[in-house]
Design brief:
125 residues; mainly alpha; single chain
């Protein structure tokens, strides 16, 4: 999968994709509650590394670090799904091949159980 990170243009392009993604996130009535008072520059830096991870690039996050970072946010399944759709849209806008978009999206979805709050998961069932 590291070829995907390189094909996309490395960190410079991945950062642009993440910035476009967060423009959408901040406009989303489903997700906006999570970003009041957040240092977006710092968040985009972190998320650029996370996106690089999803693309097989030279960054990585442990499951435990991701769990700790999201634990207090009470992210629901609907919010996670919204973020996934906005991610997909952002990748499409940057002209990624559909198979590459699917690869990144599937990698993102693989973190659902770590990011979505367990109580929110049970409430959605």
């Amino acid at each position: 999968m590291s070829d995907l990170f390189d094909r996309c243009g490395g960190f410079a392009v991945v950062r642009q994709i993440v910035s476009a993604f967060y423009d959408k996130v901040l406009d989303s009535p489903v997700l906006e509650r999570h970003f009041a008072g957040v240092d977006m520059k710092r968040l985009i830096d972190h998320q650029t590394k996370f996106m690089a991870t999803l693309m097989g690039g030279p960054a990585s996050f442990s499951d435990e670090a991701l769990r700790r970072a999201h634990a207090a946010l009470a992210i629901s399944a609907d919010e996670f799904n919204e973020a996934g759709e906005l991610l997909r849209e952002s990748l499409e806008e940057f002209g990624l091949h559909p198979a590459d978009i699917r690869e990144v999206y599937d990698a993102f979805v693989g973190y659902r159980s770590i990011i979505v709050d367990e109580d929110q998961q049970r409430a959605a069932q």
